[in-house]
TrEMBL record:
Source taxon at top rank: Eukaryota
Ranges that cross the membrane: none
Natural source organism: Ambrosia artemisiifolia (Common ragweed)
This protein's record includes keyword Magnesium: yes
Record protein name field: Haloacid dehalogenase-like hydrolase domain-containing protein Sgpp
Pfam families according to UniProt: HAD_2 (PF13419)
Cofactor annotation: Mg(2+)
NCBIfam families xrefs: HAD-SF-IA-v3
Amino acid sequence: MTVGEISDKSKAAFQALAPLEAVLFDVDGTLCDSDPIHHIAFKEMLLEIGFNGGVPIDEEFFIQNIAGKHNDDIAAVLFPDDIERGLKFCVDKEAYFRKLVKEKVEPIKGLYKLTKWVEDNGLKRAAVTNAPRPNAELMISTLGLTDFFHHVIIGDECERAKPAPDPYLKAIELLNVSKDHTFICEDSVSGIKAGVAAGMPVVGLTTRNPEQLLMTANPTLLIKDYEDPKLWAVLEELGKKAGDA
């Protein structure tokens, strides 16, 4: 399966969701293209402390070691000999990120078309993220989606963060919906793995991560953004099934 096609298996997985009850969304890279802002924050702050001999981290390093990962894991990669320092660095970086977000955050193309569809169909919805709560709530409010989400689930507030399934399982519990009637939107390998482990179909967005990388986590469908005709083909089919029910 590539971005250009829908497999029969994917179609069947979505058709089996009828009647659809809920949609769960990651935040970074899924609601908004925030990875470049994270990259800027990490790059500038790591340069200040002479990380990597003063050579700025490139996009490849960012994708492999930072994007979509929990701060505990990032701290271990950046400061393997001093995890405490790494965790403190990540806290400071998040504060800098929040400053940048207000100026730079943009919704993923077609996001509001999908959120309107979700609302029009009376579906429940939650944001599920490894981001710290202040970051997640700031991005959601900057996008005008504070009232859209019924819950915001934070990886740190669960037993385990993504790639473990715990945050997604907590979301369906709080929404009081079945995983058999819920799908997930994600953009990272870590997030897709969490959704798959939670037993729900995952729509993977190729916002920043290469399609081949995302495929290693087994998404049900890969799309470029929320205007992708493949997404609307499966949603319209689901809508028809809801009408038949």
